[in-house]
Amino acid sequence: MVAHCRDNSERYEQNVIKEYLAYRLLNVLTDISYRVRLARVTYIDSDQRDDNRVHYAFFIEHKNRLAKRLGLPEIYTAKIKVADLAGPYSDLTSLFQFLIGNTDFSPIAGAEGEDCCHNSTLFGNEGEPIYAIPYDFDMSGLVDAPYAEPNPRFRIKRVTQRLYRGRCAYIDNLSASLQQFHENRDTIYGLIDRQPELHGLDAQEDEKIRRSLLRRDRQPEESAARNRVAVHLIRSRRRARRASRRRSSRPAGG
45-78 pLDDT, tens per residue? Predict the structure, then answer.
């Protein structure tokens, strides 16, 4: 169960609603995702020193139930290779992370001292492609929690700044993945607009979500989104090459 972080704070309670909404958006795009259920939870002070309090929370599908629903076992490992991932699914979830403004994940490795993978659970049969199913979206720009800070290595100033972290190996799947977003565009808009517990997104964040991958202007949508993603990939490769040249130019032992 995911609950609020601080009592008597409308912002923190809205953070719970927004993270719940992130899971629901992914549910629209694919059944290979954690299902969630919103709840109103009553907190009772057993010492009777404080009044009962009621707050929003949500339940996340247990990974064992998810494994049974998908017919795939969970995989326990220290890390995997990009080539091990299910390409189309990896591309779809990368676009989803871009949509909600999330960079706090890795489908191939865990954080230092943690098992694989960071904010992703691995499922798959031996010898078959692996599904890295994402969870934990509180560090996303959509949620914009007060404690959320971007990873310094990504060189972004705030979590509401988009950065595409998809894999170059699966760029050919981009068109099909984008099509899934376009086909579900109205449903995605509807979830945002008709979530009664949500007291409205920040105007700028709402606009970013609507323009990130779901544009309605005259320019071909697929080309526009593909170009933006390609720019991120090109810049990432350029930074990697510059870093490699700097390392190779350093004197030995220096």
Answer: 888 788 888 899 999 999 999 999 999 999 999 8
By the 10 Å C-beta count (0-12 exposed, 13-18 middle, 19+ buried), 23 is classed as buried
- 8 A C-beta contact, residue 59 and residue 37: yes
Could you tell me what percentage of the chain is helix, strand and coil, using 3-state DSSP and rounding each to the nearest 5?
45, 10, 45
Q: Which residues pair with 132 in a beta bridge?
A: 122
- Token look-up 């001292």 returns 113
Q: Which helix (H) or strand (E) holds 12?
A: helix 10-29
Residue 67 token pair = 């494994």
For 89, the token pair is 């699914």
Q: In whole angstroms, give the CA distance from residue 119 to residue 104.
A: 7
- 3-state SS class at 10: helix
Coil, strand or helix: which one is 235? helix
Spatial distance between the Cα atoms of 51 and 139, rounded to a whole number of angstroms: 31
Task: Decide: helix, strand or coil at residue 37.
Answer: strand
pTM over 0.85: no
CA distance 170 to 197: 37
Residue carrying the six token digits 């994402």: 134
Whole-number Å distance between alpha carbons of 174 and 177: 5
pLDDT digits (tens, 9 = 90+) for 107-138: 999 988 888 999 999 999 999 999 999 999 99
